[in-house]
Amino acid sequence: METFLQKAIQSIQSSIISFSKYITANDTGSTGAHQAGFHIHKNSWKLIFPEPGIKGSNKDKYVTIKWQDSFETSSRFIYYGTGTRNEYRLTRFGKGFPFLSDENIGNLLIICKKSDEYYEAFVLKTDEDIDDFFAELNISSTDTNGIIPKQFEQTAAENLYECFLKFLSSLKIDFPTTIELAKNARNCYNNAYSITDKIIKANPDKEILNWLDAEFQLFKTIENDRYLKRIQTPFETVEELVITANTILNRRKSRAGKSLEHHLSEIFNTFSISFASQTVTEDNKKPDFIFPGLDAYLNPKFDNKKLFVLAAKTTCKDRWRQILNEADRVKTKHLFTLQQGISKNQLEEMYKYDVCLVVPKTYLQSFPEEFRSKILTLDGFINEVSTRQ
């Protein structure tokens, strides 16, 4: 039986245009927004209309949407341009619609345009499906809330791309290690855009997202170079096709899994923060980061209040529980994530178990308003750690 993930990918490949986003508290109405309904980023107006909305007037469009390849709704895309509003939304789903409850916050919404009046939509709920979605389409989690590219698009500045090509030509192996990939992407980006330590310290939340995006673009550049000729050549057996596909997908997921850790390490080094990564604590557990280090953690005389543990997970809707027993001496576990939006129930459970989220500053608005004061930005986390060091 085909999964929703497989159906969503097939729908994207055969659609005119497609869109993805994390479902947020603003969509479900948990933030006290004007109304519940999926917010569509202004840059994605092509999903709906032939031209963008004009400030000063509203316009709408009624469509049929088939959800999860199962049931249909008669829904409404609308642009609000009057008064202070300037936004696009998808509304009107009928009674019993299952995807606008708080439990869906943090799930991934995919909308595919099949014709002017007919769309298909899917909601992916598990971390595994969401990670596989990004890997199979070769897009980054930072590319959500926008149009899904159908093919490689060079969006970086010319000098950045030239740096990528120089690195590619210098490689003596098929693929660099994840740490080498992250380092070179970061160096290319910093050199291309004249990013200094001063700039990084002024806005670490912004720069880590820029590094993640640059690394992803570099990875795609290498991947296209390494596999373009191979996929243009017929496979002799199905097994050979499957092996090649699995190799590509596994490498994508492996890179994504380590990327955050590598760039966070560079941020902490820039701020001259003492830390250790991937060290062993109780029961052979390996927390991503311990502050100020393993020696301090293993020293029973060291003040527990000065110890911090940080996990790094791209998505964490289900995986956050994995960090609960990684360091017994540290009561509050911090978790840095690129997840955009988590339901109230899940957030309440996280804080019940002393898990404190850390997210890029621009992602704060995707969480329920009453929890935002409890969520740290990367800059805020760095300030807390630095103060105690």
From TrEMBL:
Recite the UniProt keywords alphabetically: Endonuclease, Hydrolase, Nuclease
Q: State what protein this is by name.
A: Restriction endonuclease
InterPro entries to which the protein is assigned, alphabetical: DNA-bd_pseudobarrel_sf (IPR015300), EcoRII_C_sf (IPR038365), Rest_endonuc_II_EcoRII_N (IPR023372), Restrct_endonuc-II-like (IPR011335), Restrct_endonuc_II_EcoRII_C (IPR015109)
The segment(s) forming the Restriction endonuclease type II EcoRII C-terminal domain are 219-382
Task: Report the superkingdom from the record.
Answer: Bacteria
The keyword Ion transport is assigned to this record = no
Restriction endonuclease type II EcoRII N-terminal domain segment(s): 14-137
* Coiled-coil intervals, chain numbering: none
List the GO biological process terms: DNA restriction-modification system
Q: Name one GO molecular function term.
A: type II site-specific deoxyribonuclease activity
